[in-house]
Design goal:
Helices cover about 55% and strands about 0% of the residues. The protein has helices at about 10-20, 25-35, 35-45, 55-70. α1 (about 10-20) runs antiparallel to α4, α2 crosses α3 and α3 (about 35-45) packs across α4 (about 55-70). The radius of gyration is 17 Å and the shape is elongated.
């Protein structure tokens, strides 16, 4: 059976914020959400604010949606030799 990655939902991100506020560990959060702890750790590190290392679900979701939208939109090469 093939495993497929599924994006974190806004509800899951919200739950992560709640559990982080109650000082739950990454492992505890992952078990409760049914996700691997490396996924939770990566998302918390990637989407925490740089100033105070705070994970906010609404900001994390906005950042994820922006990255998803911009994922395959690279500018074309403008070199005349490459045509």
């Amino acid at each position: 059976m093939e495993k497929r990655y599924k994006q974190l939902s806004f509800e899951e991100r919200d739950r992560i914020t709640e559990m982080k506020a109650t000082n739950k560990s990454i492992t505890e959060i992952a078990k409760e959400l049914g996700r691997h702890k490396s996924i939770i750790s990566r998302k918390v590190m990637r989407n925490s604010s740089s100033a105070c290392r705070l994970y906010l679900s609404h900001r994390a979701h906005e950042r994820a949606e922006k990255r998803k939208k911009e994922a395959n939109t690279r500018p074309r090469l403008k070199d005349e030799e490459i045509v």
